[in-house]
Design brief:
Layout (H helix, E strand, L loop, with lengths): L1 H8 L1 E5 L2 E6 L18 H12 L3 E4 L11 H13 L4 E5 L8 H4 L5 E4 L1 E4 L2 E4 L12 E4 L4 E7 L2 E6 L1 E4 L2 E3 L10 E2 H4 L11 E5 L5 E6 L2
Parallel strand pairs: 2-3, 3-4, 4-5, 7-8, 8-12, 9-13
Antiparallel strand pairs: 1-2, 6-7, 9-10, 11-12, 11-14, 14-15
């Protein structure tokens, strides 16, 4: 059941590297900073899901972890998470929460960390920095945890979504415990998209909701 949720919040594409699984903003070790007093073991279930998908490559679009630093607890959770993924090739686009991520990622020969990756004219970034000086046709990013509010009867409910504007597709956070930012305010958090005027919204189930104006 939970694997199905992870599947809806992730994306599988085909690249020259093989079957490529994209996830964004897991924010591992998020519990304490989000006010939770329990261990959700979210990262263990996420690792199980990734292994069940058995991709050739996993791309994490930034904010692998929640704490800005690298405490003992965070390091332990990350070590456990990456250890469970075995030899899957992992590419991490460094996010604004990923300070000192190399202290853990550097212990694994199958992990690469960079501000961006360019594969087959497709750009992969987190979204918190200006665009790199490279030529690309399409781009995938995270950072803003896109969400929209939908009315069900008299109830207004916020739901995660995929957001496309121009060449850019923004993925929702893979973490089911973290909600999103409304796309109209969230888009302003991306330096190279802050002046975008409109985008297209897709629910995780694949339903196209239509166009939304950011102005």
């Amino acid at each position: 059941m939970e694997f199905e949720l992870f599947r809806k919040l992730s994306l599988e594409i085909r690249t020259s590297l093989g079957r490529t699984l994209l996830i964004a903003d897991p924010h591992i070790a998020f519990e304490a900073s989000r006010g939770l007093r329990i261990r959700t073991r979210f990262e263990e279930r996420l690792a199980d899901f990734i292994n069940s998908e058995d991709p050739d490559v996993l791309i994490i679009l930034g904010d692998v972890k929640e704490p800005l630093g690298m405490g003992i607890f965070t390091k332990r959770l990350l070590m456990g998470f990456f250890s469970e993924l075995g030899d899957i090739r992992i590419l991490i686009t460094r996010g604004n929460h990923d300070g000192r991520i190399e202290e853990v990622a550097g212990k694994f020969r199958n992990i690469e960390v960079s501000d961006h990756f360019l594969i087959d004219d497709v750009l992969f970034v987190h979204g918190n920095r200006n665009l790199p000086d490279v030529q690309f046709e399409d781009a995938y990013l995270g950072h803003i945890h896109p969400a929209v509010s939908i009315k069900f009867g008299s109830t207004l409910r916020k739901t995660k979504c995929f957001l496309r504007t121009g060449r850019f597709l923004i993925l929702p956070t893979i973490n089911p415990y973290i909600s999103g930012f409304d796309v109209k305010s969230g888009i302003k958090m991306i330096p190279f998209l802050k002046d975008a005027e409109r985008g297209e919204v897709y629910l995780p189930e694949g339903v196209y909701l239509g166009e939304v104006s950011f102005v």
